[in-house]
Write a structure and sequence with these properties.
The protein has 143 residues and is α+β, with helices and mostly antiparallel strands. It folds into two domains: 67 residues; 75 residues, no CATH class. Helices cover 43% and strands 29% of the residues. It has two helices and five strands; from the N terminus they run αβββββα. A five-stranded antiparallel β-sheet has the order 3-2-1-4-5, covered by helices on one side. α1 runs antiparallel to α2. The N and C termini lie close together (9 Å). It comes from Pseudarthrobacter niigatensis.
Length: 143
């Protein structure tokens, strides 16, 4: 029976590692893209709302994704929606920094170190969780 628990644990850990690697690569790819893109000050125009998934028994929470507009050096107005959410709705008129693709300014991303920080925290959390769950399986009385 413990063998089954260890197999389930290994599959869970493999899934988490795959997910974290995917998220880290995506974040790194976006950071590399944004490094060469021009930056602009964008004005928050409002927000789009969405819900957290509520995975793991957590309660679902309403999240707000800022919508914004900015102009390129020629004065052309572009709009975008941030991938970075917050609990509180953003204040319309607030300024945020965005990076935009010079070949297609409709493609823009909010500049923030938050995704890297969140990924680092998730890695630390799941490492501790994996070790603790492995230890728990070892001491779990099977009878």
């Amino acid at each position: 029976m413990k063998t089954i628990l260890y197999i389930v644990w290994a599959l869970f850990v493999a899934g988490v590692v795959f997910s974290l690697l995917y998220a880290a690569r995506r974040t790194r790819r976006q950071q590399q893209q944004m490094a060469s893109w021009p930056k602009a000050q964008a004005t928050v125009t409002g927000s789009a709302t969405g819900w957290t998934s509520g995975i793991g028994g957590a309660s679902r929470n309403l999240r707000h994704f800022p919508t914004y507009q900015f102009t390129d050096p020629r004065g052309t107005l572009f709009m975008g929606k941030s991938e970075i959410s917050g609990v509180q709705p953003p204040v319309p008129g607030a300024l945020i920094e965005v990076a935009y693709n010079p070949a297609d300014p409709n493609e823009s991303l909010q500049v923030s170190s938050e995704p890297r920080t969140a990924t680092g925290c998730l890695i630390a959390f799941f490492a501790v969780f994996a070790v603790a769950s492995f230890w728990f399986i070892g001491i779990f009385p099977m009878g």
